[in-house]
Amino acid sequence: LFHKEKIKKMCLFHNGDTVQTSTVPSGEFCKVWGLNDIKIGDIIGERTDYIKDIHFAEPQMEAAIDAVPKEQIHNLY
Fold first, then answer.
1. DSSP secondary structure letter of residue 45
2. Which residue, of 30, 35, 38, 52, has the fewest CB within 10 Å?
3. Which residues contact 65 (CB under 8 A, 6 or more apart)?
4. Would you state the pLDDT for residue 23?
5. What residues does 12 pair with on adjacent strands?
6. How far apart are CA 69 and CA 62, in angstroms?
7. Cβ–Cβ under 8 Å, residues 34 and 7
8. What is the phi/psi pair of residue 33, to 5°?
């Protein structure tokens, strides 16, 4: 799957928390903002034999925040 979008923010997982970063070393897991059609477990970059068998559990809970009224959406960023 090819994406032509800009990553707006990335965070590495570290000691049970997340730390914002501008680079992610090969093999590390990160949280990414700005890609619309990506989901947990998707690989960004080249797929290799090292990571072909990694499987992730689906999240148990998901939340979304909407602006009310919709015209106030810019205040969420």
1. S
2. 52
3. 76
4. 92
5. 19, 30
6. 22
7. yes
8. -115, 145
Place of tokens 């205040």: 75
Cβ 58 vs Cβ 40: under 8 Å: yes
Distance, in Å, from the CA atom of 50 to the CA atom of 29, rounded to the nearest integer, reads: 14
b/e sequence 34-60, b meaning 16+ C-beta within 10 Å: eeeeeeeeeeeeeeeeeeeeeeeeeee
Per residue in 10-66, pLDDT (tens digit) is: 999 988 889 999 999 887 888 899 888 887 777 777 767 766 666 667 777 778 888
- Residue 75 vs residues 61, 62, 68, 71: alpha-carbon distances, Å: 25, 21, 10, 9
- CA 30/CA 21 separation, integer angstroms: 9
Which amino acid, 26? S
